[in-house]
Amino acid sequence: MTGIVWPLDGGRPVMELVLIIEQTLQRVTRKLLADTGAGSLQAPFHLLLDEDDCLLCGGTPSHSVSLGGAYTGSFLSYSIDVEIPALGFADNLHAVGISGPVGVFDGIACFRFLNRFTYGNFGVCASQKSVIS
Amino acid sequence: MSTSNHSNPYFEQNERLADQINDEALQNPDSPYAGKFVGIVSGRVVVVADSSDAVVRRLEQIEPDRMKCYCFEAGIDYNRVVEIWGPFA
Questions:
Q1: CATH homologous superfamily of domain A8-114?
Q2: Do the beta carbons of residue B34 and residue B51 sit within 8 Å?
Q3: Beta carbons of A66 and B4 less than 8 Å apart
Q4: What is the pLDDT averaged over residues A2-31?
Q5: Domains in chain A: boundaries
Q6: Which residue range is the domain that position B10 belongs to?
Q7: How far apart are CA A70 and CA A114, in angstroms?
Q8: The model's pTM
Q9: How many domains would you assign to chain B?
Q10: Residue in chain B nearest A82 by alpha carbon
């Protein structure tokens, strides 16, 4: 099994996700901050994405969630198809729709999602490892 | 469809049902919904499955208008505030 490492952007770990625009089926890449401190395994979402991306990519409406800290209040969430070609990953995830980008990033990959993977330059999860080839 | 849930007339109806199901799942671990993903169309449960992907694929077959659809995970405390600190500092 070959591991991959977190790409860094400005010294911060990032994940590059591919989303699919519903109308055109065009694949677009989004660079998300990989933030293991964002949420927990029990969080009701995997990602924070620009709400426009959630809608353009045909996100199915999901439960409202309550955020605090940098984003405060009740936010809408969506079930959205996500791919990570480098990992051969494709699944439907729950993303909170936020207004605009997150600093220089297109969103945040939260701990519930990051915990699915093993990275060569990061912690190894005990239970929910994905095979990286 | 580029319509936010804020202006989606089906959203409130679907979320109301989702709240009822979620309350049941939280109070009763033996609930058939506990730990499952639930798909709703226009205020009616149409699919219960083990993954969000399975629910969304089924919803696509049932209802082409995604704004009438709703997919959520039952048994999660949606009222708990999740702290997100963002890329500061």
A1: Acid Proteases (2.40.70.10)
A2: no
A3: no
A4: 87
A5: 8-114
A6: 5-73
A7: 20
A8: 0.87
A9: 1
A10: B53
